[in-house]
Design goal:
single chain, Rossmann fold, 2 domains, 4-stranded parallel β-sheet, binds pyridoxal-5'-phosphate
Length: 333
């Protein structure tokens, strides 16, 4: 099967680099214990190029193209106060000459740093949902804008509708090509998974390309059963949107929910250790909420002998850098 081209509004620097992490591998090999350490690579979607990068750039290329096709004048989306998706949406709106309204969960935090600071710099209007459900609050914002004569385009939480997820089916094609060019046998991909569009798209892409790679979603906030069910639904809708003759089921999705720690957005010892190890060994940054947790999951899977030494594991770095600056105290430990 081949993946179709979809209309894009160009935002991303593609292909993102695929880099070896030899010093992280050596650090893990030098630890006490007998765990085999696979070859480790990192797919640098923290370098997608839009507003400090991240996985939402690829999704937004397709979503903004659709918004422009429909004649929208305002992007509206929702997320947590430190949402990377909201920050990237605000930047994408600026690039496309659109207005942006962000509906953020809860109340305004005391500290206006990290992603929230950037949201404001990109000129987004920010509404805090307070005690209201943020999806309902987002619908109110959409209705208010329409009542004032605007043409809002609502982007679902995390950009994870079938069109957004399709971007990661195409991204999987990019990774498979990079591996083929360099003679790398791709065995496993590790990625942080939350609203699910990234993992669902990757799995659809891998199935469509018949690539024998296992994609491990490290759940950021949901129990395995819930996330798998979301992934099956979104994956199937994504495959249908792409016109692929695929049927997806629970067994297509590998999810690890052992790393939820204190819950969404709570950085604990595991994330702190993972962030520090990556920084010291490779000079790379992971964030406290998503990639730090996903990396902590990868380290645990390696230390518990999940992979063979002759396998290749790609850690798909999905960005999140600005959140570091909203977690300074927690990172100091
Ligand atoms: C840095 C980062 N990594 C991973 C994810 C998870 O991606 P998805 O919501 O598509 O599962 C997010 C989502 O917000 C993110 O911001």
């Amino acid at each position: 099967m081949t993946l179709p081209n979809l209309p894009r509004f160009s935002l991303a620097h593609l292909p993102t680099p695929l880099e070896e992490m030899p010093r992280l591998r050596t650090a893990l090999q030098n630890e006490p214990g007998q765990h085999p350490v696979p070859r480790l690579l990192v797919k640098r979607d923290d370098q997608t190029g839009l507003a400090t990068g991240g996985n939402k750039t690829r999704k937004l290329e397709l979503l903004v193209a659709e918004a422009l096709r429909l004649g929208a004048d305002t992007l509206v989306t929702t997320g947590a106060p430190q949402s990377n998706h909201c920050r990237q949406t605000a930047a994408a709106a600026a690039r496309a000459g659109l207005a942006c309204t962000l509906v953020l969960g809860g109340n305004a935090p005391m500290l206006d740093g990290g992603n929230l600071l950037l949201d404001r710099l990109f000129g987004a209007e920010i509404i805090f949902a307070g005690s209201e459900d943020r999806l309902i609050a987002m619908q109110h914002a959409v209705d208010d804008l329409a009542a004032k004569g605007h043409r809002p385009f609502a982007i679902t939480y995390g950009g994870s509708n079938p069109l957004g997820a399709a971007a990661y089916a195409l991204a999987m094609d990019e990774l498979v090509d990079q591996c083929a060019e360099r003679g790398i046998r791709l065995d496993h991909v590790i990625v942080g998974s939350s609203s699910g569009g990234t993992q669902a798209g990757m799995v659809v892409g891998a199935r469509a390309l018949a690539a024998p790679v296992q994609i491990h979603g490290i759940s950021i906030d949901l129990a395995e059963k819930t996330l798998v069910s979301n992934l099956v639904t979104l994956g199937q809708q994504t495959a249908d949107l792409l016109g692929l003759d695929l049927t997806l089921a629970d067994r297509d999705f590998t999810v690890h929910d052992a790393y939820l720690g204190g819950g969404y957005g709570v950085m604990g010892a595991a994330e702190r250790e993972a962030i520090g190890l990556l920084a010291r060994s490779e000079g790379l940054l992971a964030d406290p909420v998503y990639t730090g947790r996903a990396l902590a999951g990868l380290l645990d899977l390696i230390r518990t002998g999940r992979f063979a030494a002759d396998e290749t594991v790609v850690f798909w770095h999905t960005g999140g850098l600005p959140a570091i600056f909203a977690y300074e105290d927690a990172l100091r430990g």
